[in-house]
Amino acid sequence: MFVLLRLLRESYVFAFQAIIVNRVRTVLSLLGIAIGIFCIISVFTIFDSMEIAIRKSIDSLGSNVLYIQKWPWAMGGDYPWWKYFQRPEPTLADMREIQNRSNLSDATAFFIQVNKTVKFQDNYVESVGVMGVSQDFDKVWKFELADGRYFSPTESTSGKNVVILGAEIAQNLFMEGEPVGQKIKIFGRNIEVIGVLKKEGEDFFGNSNDKTVMIPILYARNLVDLKEVGTCIVVKAKPQISNDELIDELTGIMRSIRKLKPISEDNFAINQTSIISKGFDAVFGVIGTVGWIIGGFSLLVGGFGIANIMFVSVKERTSIIGIQKALGAKNYFILFQFLFEAIFLSLIGGIVGLVIVTLLAILVSLTTSFHLIITPGNVFLGMGVSAMIGLISGIIPAYAASRLNPVEAMRTGA
Question: What is the distance of C-alpha 45 from the center of its chain?
Fold first, then answer.
C-alpha cells in the first residue's frame, strides 16, 4: 500500500510539473478534450433536461388514464388519416355505457374543447380554450382550485350556466377583482363564475390549465354541435389495474356499443401516454447519437494531443527512466507512472469542459424559462470518458517507456 501511494504521489508530481513547464503545449493539447467533453455533456444535459420536462408534461396527462377518441395518437411515420376520417366521435351515451359496464375503471369522464372569446364588461380574452366537461372530470384530470369550488352533481346533470376559470383568464378579466360570483359572457351567454384554478404555468408543449375555462358538458351541448367538435372519453384505471387490462375491457365494451362484427376493425381509438413516450424515445435516441458523433471527433483530436504530450514527455525524461530502472524500478512502475500522467491530464480537460457546461447551464436557467439540469450521471459520464481517453492515449507511450533498456536510456538522455 505504501509503495502504491508513493507511486501515485510521484506520478502526480511528474504530471503537475509537465503542465507547469509546458503550459502552452498542454493547454492546446487539452483543448480538444475539453471541447469534446463539453459537446457530449452539453448535448446530454439538454437531452436530459428536455426529457425531464417532456416526461413531466406527459405524466400530467395521467399514466393510468386512457383516452377514447376518434383519432389514434401517433409519433412519426405515415398516418393513414383517411382510415379514421369516417369514424364516429365518442358520445355521452358511450360514456354512460362504459360507466355502467366497466368493472376495472375508477372514474370515467367526457370532455370537448373549443376556442371562444370570453368577456367581462370591457375586458375580453380571445381564443380561450373552453372545455365542456362531465361531473367526474376532476377525478381523471390533474388540477387544483385556488378559489371557489367544482361543479356540483346537480349543476352537471342540469347543464347549469356556471364556469370555472383558469388563473390567467381570471387575471386578464378581473385584474385584482374577485371573480367568484361574477358573471362573464361565453357564446354570448351570461355564465356565473363559481371557481378559479390554481396557477400552474405552461408545460413543455405550451399547454396550461391557466388558459382554459370549464363549463358543464350538458350546458356546452346546447351551444355546440358535439358531432362537429372532437370529443373524448377519459377513463382512469382502478389501483393495481394495468392499462393493458383496461384496454382489453374497454375494447370489448366499445365494440359491443358500436355493434361491430368480429371481423370488423375497431372504429375508435384507445390512446395512452406511453404512445407519446415511445415516440420521444426515438427522438432522444437520435439526439444522443448526434451528441456522441460531435463529441467523438473532438475527443479523437484531444486523444491525439494527449498521446503527443506523453511521447514528448517520455523522450524528455528518458534519462530519468533509465536511472529509475537502474535503481530497481519495475516495468509496471514506469508504465503506471506515465498512464497516471495521461489520465490526470485528460481529467483536467474533462473538468474544464464540465465547468464550461455548468456555467452555461446556470446562465440559460437564469435568463430563460427552460431549466438545464446537470445530473450526477452526466458528471460521472464526463469524468469516465475523460479517464478512458487518457488511458487509451497514454497506453502506447507508457508501454514504450516501461520497455526502455536502463543503460541505453541513461546514455540517450546524456
Answer: 10
